[in-house]
Design goal:
This protein has helices at residues 3-10, 26-36, 68-71, 95-107, 137-148, 170-177, 235-247, 277-288; strands at 41-43, 47-53, 60-61, 64-65, 73-81, 84-93, 111-116, 122-123, 127-135, 182-184, 187-193, 199-200, 203-204, 212-221, 224-233, 251-256, 262-263, 267-276. With 295 residues, it is α+β, with helices and mostly antiparallel strands. It has 2 domains: 3-148, no CATH class; 170-288, no CATH class.
Amino acid sequence: MSNSEGKMRFACTLAFCAIVVHDLPAQDWNAVDSALGRKGAVQPGEVMKYSFPRSDLHVSARGVKLEPAFALGSWIAFKRMPDGSMAMGDLVLTDEEVAKVIVKLQEAGIEQTALHNHLIGESPRVMYMHISAHGDALKIANGIHAALAVTGTPLKASAAAPTAAIEIDTAAVAAALGYHGRMNGRVYQVSVPRRERIVENGMEIPPSMGLATAINFQPTGTGNAAITGDFVMTAGEVNRVIRALEKNNIQPTGLHSHMLNESPRLFFMHFWANDNAAALAKGLAAALKEMDVSR
């Protein structure tokens, strides 16, 4: 091993389920890809993320049939740290799958950091399990695969959803919101990182590992859209954001933690509305102004 390789390996050992891409030998990434049955996507902060859309589920909420990219996407992200790899993720599960998945994850040394709802009134009911692991990336990947194998999650990667014609004016949404997003199939997705550094166990966690406010728009006809996602807030911001959302007819649907030892302490608020997309974007912008986010 060259000196530069040794330095890169040392810099990548203490981590989550996220992996520094240029530090990880190609054959190791190939092994992780193989274990998870798909290629990962490089994210900002030298993170590798794997997505598992729950295309097997047919979930509706308040008359809206949910697209996988809107609220039904399991994922796991890796980042290399000084003592191994750090992993964080969020698994979308049915009630019947939860207990079986916990058993498999615990057998693999993968910890659960939260289990809760994100939506209200959906059918069938969906639970969200947040997870964390440190250690060998391939071992973690094998544990994730074993857990997903006891669910209905499609384990064979499917072709990326084509960008479809969308019935909302995304330019108007971006202008009202103050942030631009990207299309994922028929869903317009926006990510807004916080301004300050987030640290867990002494290591900085990039926003791309689930620590950025996520806002999703799914068209529901004639310029309208359903919205969901989660605001990532400190304690002092929580009720200011609630008031801003309620003032704009956006309903909070969940308030909880996703992690165990982060600093500063973070709270995640999920939300729902179905109305004119640009008007909802203005309401979301009002809530973002109550937070310390990147402008």
